# Entry
Amino acid sequence: MHRNAMMHCDIKEPNIMLKTKDYTDPVIALIDFGMTQNSAGQGLAGGTPGYRPPETNATNIWFPRGDIFSMGVVFFQLLADKTPNEEIQKGGLFTEGAKTIEQVIYFVKTREPPWPLITRQFPGVMAWLPMMLRKELRSRPKAPILLQEPWFRA
# Structure
């Protein structure tokens, strides 16, 4: 999408689907393009609290590297078994313990992921996942750089 100057603006677990049943060689698809923005346009923000990056929460403007942050949240939550679940009152990385949207925004801005939850079981992700979750927009990698990581080339 970014190669075509588009931003998804709502990457989260429910918007990622498997197109095949072969879990050894999955084909993944993004769905729900209702908040998609042209990155050459205004980039006005949509998105889901807890997945929106700090700069979007602060300015209400979405940037392509915001999708990188959102995808980082998804990766962390899946690997750490912290995927939100409203039915059982389970919060995610930045929503756990929050009672208001303002608290979620504060947690996105200040909370560091509990890396010990994943480092022993998935040490290979530490080469790229912390970069995806950097609070500063410009210090996050662009998608083509991430895709060069051995984890994604396997």
Remarks:
- The two ends are 21 Å apart (CA to CA).
- The CA atoms of residues 50 and 94 lie 5 Å apart.
- The chain has a mean pLDDT of 89.
